[in-house]
Write a structure and sequence with these properties.
Helix content: 55-70%
Distance between the termini: 17 Å
Number of domains: 1
Shape: globular
Order of helices and strands: HHHH
Radius of gyration: 13 Å
Structural class: mainly alpha
Oligomer: single chain
Length: 97
Protein backbone atom coordinates (compact mmCIF):
# COMPACT_ATOMS: atom_id res chain seq x y z
CA UNK A 1 0.00 0.00 0.00
CA UNK A 2 1.42 3.40 -0.92
CA UNK A 3 1.46 6.46 1.31
CA UNK A 4 -1.85 8.36 1.58
CA UNK A 5 -2.15 11.38 -0.67
CA UNK A 6 -4.87 13.90 -1.37
CA UNK A 7 -6.36 13.54 -4.82
CA UNK A 8 -8.13 16.56 -6.32
CA UNK A 9 -11.84 16.36 -7.11
CA UNK A 10 -10.88 16.96 -10.73
CA UNK A 11 -10.11 13.24 -10.88
CA UNK A 12 -13.84 12.52 -10.51
CA UNK A 13 -14.63 12.77 -14.24
CA UNK A 14 -11.79 10.40 -15.03
CA UNK A 15 -12.98 7.87 -12.44
CA UNK A 16 -16.51 8.10 -13.87
CA UNK A 17 -15.15 7.44 -17.36
CA UNK A 18 -13.24 4.34 -16.23
CA UNK A 19 -16.37 3.02 -14.52
CA UNK A 20 -18.47 3.61 -17.64
CA UNK A 21 -15.91 2.45 -20.22
CA UNK A 22 -14.33 -0.48 -18.43
CA UNK A 23 -16.62 -1.67 -15.62
CA UNK A 24 -20.29 -0.77 -16.33
CA UNK A 25 -22.18 -3.82 -14.99
CA UNK A 26 -25.51 -2.05 -15.69
CA UNK A 27 -24.72 -0.91 -19.25
CA UNK A 28 -25.23 2.70 -18.17
CA UNK A 29 -22.81 3.99 -20.80
CA UNK A 30 -25.29 3.08 -23.53
CA UNK A 31 -27.97 5.48 -22.25
CA UNK A 32 -27.08 9.16 -21.87
CA UNK A 33 -29.61 9.67 -19.06
CA UNK A 34 -27.97 6.86 -17.05
CA UNK A 35 -24.38 8.10 -17.28
CA UNK A 36 -24.51 9.24 -13.65
CA UNK A 37 -25.43 5.77 -12.40
CA UNK A 38 -22.06 5.18 -10.74
CA UNK A 39 -21.52 8.69 -9.38
CA UNK A 40 -22.09 7.52 -5.80
CA UNK A 41 -19.02 5.31 -6.18
CA UNK A 42 -16.68 8.12 -7.21
CA UNK A 43 -15.96 9.64 -3.78
CA UNK A 44 -15.27 6.26 -2.13
CA UNK A 45 -12.94 5.29 -4.98
CA UNK A 46 -11.15 8.65 -4.82
CA UNK A 47 -10.70 8.06 -1.09
CA UNK A 48 -9.38 4.55 -1.63
CA UNK A 49 -6.94 5.75 -4.27
CA UNK A 50 -5.80 8.62 -2.09
CA UNK A 51 -5.51 6.26 0.86
CA UNK A 52 -3.08 4.04 -1.00
CA UNK A 53 -5.38 1.14 -1.92
CA UNK A 54 -3.74 -1.52 -4.05
CA UNK A 55 -5.11 -3.47 -7.01
CA UNK A 56 -6.48 -6.25 -4.83
CA UNK A 57 -8.43 -3.83 -2.62
CA UNK A 58 -9.97 -2.13 -5.65
CA UNK A 59 -10.91 -5.45 -7.26
CA UNK A 60 -12.54 -6.58 -4.01
CA UNK A 61 -14.47 -3.30 -3.68
CA UNK A 62 -15.75 -3.42 -7.28
CA UNK A 63 -16.78 -7.06 -6.88
CA UNK A 64 -18.72 -6.19 -3.72
CA UNK A 65 -20.56 -3.38 -5.54
CA UNK A 66 -21.54 -5.81 -8.29
CA UNK A 67 -22.84 -8.33 -5.79
CA UNK A 68 -24.82 -5.63 -3.95
CA UNK A 69 -26.55 -4.20 -7.00
CA UNK A 70 -26.99 -7.13 -9.35
CA UNK A 71 -29.50 -9.94 -9.08
CA UNK A 72 -26.86 -12.55 -9.84
CA UNK A 73 -23.39 -13.28 -8.51
CA UNK A 74 -20.43 -11.33 -9.77
CA UNK A 75 -18.79 -12.54 -12.97
CA UNK A 76 -15.54 -13.07 -11.09
CA UNK A 77 -12.55 -10.85 -10.57
CA UNK A 78 -10.34 -11.42 -13.60
CA UNK A 79 -11.97 -8.69 -15.70
CA UNK A 80 -11.94 -6.33 -12.70
CA UNK A 81 -8.13 -6.28 -12.65
CA UNK A 82 -8.05 -4.13 -15.80
CA UNK A 83 -10.47 -1.67 -14.18
CA UNK A 84 -8.40 -1.54 -10.98
CA UNK A 85 -5.21 -1.00 -12.97
CA UNK A 86 -6.77 1.91 -14.86
CA UNK A 87 -7.95 3.45 -11.59
CA UNK A 88 -4.46 3.05 -10.11
CA UNK A 89 -2.98 4.74 -13.18
CA UNK A 90 -5.22 7.74 -12.46
CA UNK A 91 -3.67 8.01 -9.02
CA UNK A 92 -0.17 7.98 -10.51
CA UNK A 93 -0.97 10.74 -13.01
CA UNK A 94 -3.10 12.89 -10.68
CA UNK A 95 -1.49 12.67 -7.23
CA UNK A 96 -0.65 16.03 -5.76
CA UNK A 97 2.65 16.49 -3.89
Amino acid sequence: MSAPTTLPKTIDDRIRQVLLDDWDPHNAARVEAARGTYDLYIAPLRGMLGGGADEEALVHWLKEREEETMCFPSLGTRRLRKVAQKLLALRETTASP
